[in-house]
Known about the structure:
The chain is mainly alpha-helical. About 60% of the residues lie in helices and about 0% in strands.
Amino acid sequence: MERRTFLTTALVGTATLALGLSIYSPEHIRVNKALDNEHRLLFSVLLPVFLEDALPNVESMRVAAQNRTLDAISQTITYLPQEGQDELEELLGMLEQRLGLLVLTGSMTPLMMRSPNELIAMLEYWRNSFLDLLVTAYQGLRELVLASYYSFPEHWGHLNYAKPTFFEE
């Protein structure tokens, strides 16, 4: 068998496998898009990675902060220009599909099944990538999560920021 034939066969076989896995996904991994139209599941996986040391240590407070941040992310997305919303929706859609994951991360393992260290490595790769598309994707997701989390005044203490006070004359 020639090298070219072998490489072509391997490439076509991999693409077919990726397409098949993209179309068929087991029931225990499938996300009901009607219930998750705001990508809450995806962001709930990314939040602890982006906000590693900022989230409270007490579990009930941590969950409450994550839920409030997820709500704030949904609200923040509505303030983006339509063009930005469309690009973000395309990125999030790709991150929720196996074929998109293969293209963006080199693995078809869903993000929710990855360990925090694997997610950190993926995001660090994006952050330092030579492809501007991946760098932009990293920066956009990071800014969205951080802006949504720090939009609440009770989190400003982590930044050593105090609300400005105005003196009345």
